[in-house]
Amino acid sequence: MLENIIEFFKNLPAKVCTSCGKEIEEQHECYGDKCDACNIL
Questions:
Q1: What is the pLDDT of residue 18?
Q2: Distance CA 34, CA 16 (A)
Q3: pTM above 0.85, yes or no
Q4: Which of 23, 24, 28, 41 is deepest in the core (most CB within 10 A)?
Q5: Nearest partner of 18 among 30, 35, 1, judged by Cα
Q6: Could you report the per-residue pLDDT of 1-40, keeping only the tens digit for each?
Q7: Using CA atoms, how far apart are residues 25 and 17, in angstroms rounded to an integer?
Q8: How far apart are CA 12 and CA 29, in angstroms?
Q9: What is the pLDDT of residue 29?
Q10: Which InterPro entries did the record assign (predicted)?
């Protein structure tokens, strides 16, 4: 069962910033939806 959970998180698609559309370089299961550059603005 643990292997299924690990595979689930490995297979999540890359997150995209809701402001600029760039791929967010962070853990894909994270709750954030903006990249670092857009969070500063």
A1: 93
A2: 8
A3: no
A4: 24
A5: 35
A6: 677 888 988 888 888 999 999 998 776 567 888 888 998 8
A7: 10
A8: 8
A9: 61
A10: YhfH-like (IPR025432)
DSSP the chain: -HHHHHHHHHTPPPPB-TTT-PBP-S-TT-S--S-HHHHH-
| Per-residue pLDDT, 25 | 79
What pLDDT, on the 0 to 100 scale, is given for residue 27? 64
Q: Is 17 exposed, middle or buried (0-12, 13-18, 19+ CB in 10 A)?
A: middle
- Pair 3, 21: CB distance under 8 Å: no
Give every CB contact of residue 13 below 8 A, 6+ residues apart in sequence.
Answer: 28
The total number of residues written for the chain in this structure: 41
> How many Å apart are CA 19 and CA 14, to the nearest integer?
15
